[in-house]
Amino acid sequence: MNLLRPTESDILTPMGLVNYATLSTEQPHPRSQSLDRLTPSQIVRLMNREDAQVLRAIAAAQPSIAKAISLITGVLRDGGRLFFVGAGTSGRLGVIEAAECPPTFNTPPSLIQAIMAGGKSAVFQSKEGSEDSESDAVSAVRKRVGKKDVLVGVAASGVTPFVGAALQTARQRGAKTILLTCNPKTPPGRAHLLIALRTGSEILSGSTRLKAGTACKMTLNMLTTASMVQLGKVFGNRMVDLQPKSRKLVERAVRLIGELGHVREPQARQLFKDSRGHVKAAIVMARRHMSYAQAAKQLDQARGFLRKVL
């Protein structure tokens, strides 16, 4: 990906402070200067047209995103953990991503975690000043992140102090680091890997919960989903490592066992019970005609890859 190589004066004032006025995410949008005079239909059309830029930004960043997936996969395969760090919208996106991995991929809650500026309460009620607290970031990373882990900092502006301090501390502790930002002028070197999404200015100037937030969410989806695929959590395009803890997911699990195990529904339900709700084991039991213990052993030897067992 072609990133601009800024000089210090591009984003820093003579006093060494961030010159926020130069950030692309802070610029006024030329096509939304009359936003307050538009009709609902006109606003919808404008937002829809601008959201198209999100897909273009992600398309341009595909090489960096793919490298990040390989880095994350390697860390998780070697026993490390994945952390998302952010403030405000960026932090909440990390929280969502971490929270959705256990039910989707049957990962332990400790494997993928989120560090939110301002703590858990900031997820539900904004604490804007918390993004400036470098000391809180340092403390949180020191308590939770180790040298075997990977930390993904999410910062639309690329200069959020909380995220910057978290990345720096993680690197000092030997962890791998990735910075996901929507500022193409973010200086290289803030993390081992930089993903810069060129989403441009927002129709509501500075409101990075719009295009920037959407672009970051889509990228985080790619990072977790592709990493889990690489770790054997998926068979074909099926969610075979799900946690069936609701009626909907139990029914999905039974359907998967029936379809992939080549058995009828009554037998699929019995296999679901016999496998203690472990879909992959139930499929192996059906296809290989073996007990749960044998199926579990086969999957363990294949490091969880159902395709290798079958």
Short description:
This protein has 310 residues and is of the alpha/beta class. The chain has helices at residues 8-11, 40-60, 62-77, 88-105, 121-124, 134-144, 161-172, 211-230, 247-261, 265-274, 279-288, 292-301, 306-309; strands at 82-86, 112-116, 150-154, 176-181, 193-196. The protein has a five-stranded parallel beta sheet with strand order 2-1-3-4-5, sandwiched between helices.
Q: What distinguishing features does this structure have?
A:
single chain, 310 residues, alpha/beta, Rossmann fold, Helicase, Ruva Protein, domain 3, 2 domains, five-stranded parallel beta sheet, disordered N terminus
List the helices and strands and how they pair.
Layout: H1 8-11, H2 40-60, H3 62-77, E1 82-86, H4 88-105, E2 112-116, H5 121-124, H6 134-144, E3 150-154, H7 161-172, E4 176-181, E5 193-196, H8 211-230, H9 247-261, H10 265-274, H11 279-288, H12 292-301, H13 306-309
Parallel strand pairs: 1-2, 1-3, 3-4, 4-5
Helix pairs in contact: 2-8, 3-8, 4-8, 6-7, 9-10, 9-11, 10-11, 11-12
CATH architecture of the largest domain: 3-Layer(aba) Sandwich
What Rg, in angstroms, do the CA atoms define? Answer: 22 Å
Low-confidence stretches: 1-9, 12-16
Task: Tell me the CATH superfamily of the largest domain.
Answer: Glucose-6-phosphate isomerase like protein, domain 1
Report the sheet with the most strands, covering strand number, pairing sense and barrel closure: 5 strands, parallel
On the 0 to 100 scale, the average pLDDT is 92
Element-by-element helix/strand order: HHHEHEHHEHEEHHHHHH
Can you identify the CATH class of the largest domain? Alpha Beta
- Which strand order do you get reading across the main beta sheet? 2-1-3-4-5
Shape: globular
Q: Approximately how much helix is present in the residues?
A: 40-55%
What's the total count of β strands?
Answer: 5
Tally of individual domains: 2
